[in-house]
Request: fold
Amino acid sequence: MRPILKKIIALCLVICLTLSGCAGIDLKGYFENLIAMFGGVTAFIDMEYQRPDMEAFQVALEEACAAAAEETDLRELEAVIFGFYDHYGAFSTAYSLSTIHYCQDLTDSYWEEEYNFCLENAAQVDAALDRFYRVLAESPLREELESDDYFGEGFFDYYEGETLYDETFLNLLGQEAQLQGQYYELSGEASAVEYYSEEYFSVYGTQMAQVLVELIALRQQLAAYAGYGSYPEFAYDYYHMRDYTPAQATSYLADIRAELTPMYKQLLQSDVLSRQWSASTTEQTFGYVEEMAGAMGGQISDAFALMKEGNLYDIAYSPNKFNTSFEVYIYNYQQPYIFLCPTGTVSDKLTFAHEFGHFCNDYMSFGSAAGVDVAEIFSQGMEYLSLFYTEESEELLTLRMAMCLSTYVEQAALASFEQQMYGLTGSDLTAENIQALYASVCAAYGIDSASWDSRSFVVVTHFYTSPLYVISYVVSNDAALQLYQLEAKQEGAGLACLEGSLATMQPYFLAFLKEAGLESPFTAGRIAQVKETLQPFLQ
Reply:
């Protein structure tokens, strides 16, 4: 597996904008200086957006590389590294702010343009970091930089030899960003019609499906150019830093289909998922997480106080919002931010708790360096633990356990479909074949065809913006459920495990589970334990 790399990825449920190099260095003082520089807690409304000056960024890169190549004083080299991170952080901040503002109103042409500008320049910025690290790999001070006080042993091994970031690779990434921009534009146009209606799919869904066809073909080129046998292998390594393989995931997803699909079908035959869930206002949704954070106390309570003081959240309804929810870290202000597109039901409480789990992880680690599989443990774990730390009704507990089973099966179906769709090549890669594959996989996992449209793969934003992310929900849900099992067995045990891990810098999923004392979801018999936990709630 490669070392921790900063990957600026298009919008996903967790937009990870953590500087890769920071993960191995004790930068606490540096981060505290940043916070002091921007006046402590900064209200979101006071955060200033400035379009990145890419020419100035390039000049800063050249100067940093020139200085890093010759510097023999460690303290002076630190200053060079931090100086470059300042420029990198400015881009990261602009990208985060433009993402938030654009998602708040997809009809706002100004923020659409700013977001697209940042998205289309992300590959250039990523390449700059790669180049900077390659210069540091040749530094006279490399041995000192690879000590435990800095980047860590072997960090620069990856940055030896030829770089992947040549003109061809950057051009392919630029084409990918443009296609992603087309998807956002179509999503904005589709907001003018009824969501999930025939008009939605026939007019806009058809175009979205064609964009996905082009993305798959392009990503296959990316993987081949990078020397990988398949795009899933490339994405697992390049974007997600996974310490398990697509082949392991495929086997695991098949086990879920065999073991949990019958139970899921029983759930569909009940009224648990179809019943009308209680409404939840914005105030009630906010109050749920406020109550939870207060009962949990400690740094979790501190994180909530920061969020509330800085108004670092948007959980209100708007017809022009992008239909997703996420948490993002705003680097220059050293503060996380939560974005929610609410449904108006009690499920919003769980969604807010989910994103608040990400918020706490970023708050405690100054911008998490954890891989996506690890990060999703904190978010889903916060949902489960919220059930113990609020005076909520039995309804929400039943809903969450139904969602748990649904996550295992439905997200496993999406993950299986996604891995298989990258196997479509040449003349087989068509929108019609993607739709047929989607219908086939969903049927195999027992998903009720009466409740979904076979064209609905176009509304799964991860397929477009965060490829091969979906498997994270499945494996991390298993780890998060273990926190629920710990808390149910002994009060405070699940919370202690969660809170004790929120500041982790461990990027790898299986390695993290071992450190936290949790079991691998790939362990034989683990799915049987899951069935035993869920069965009483889903009678």
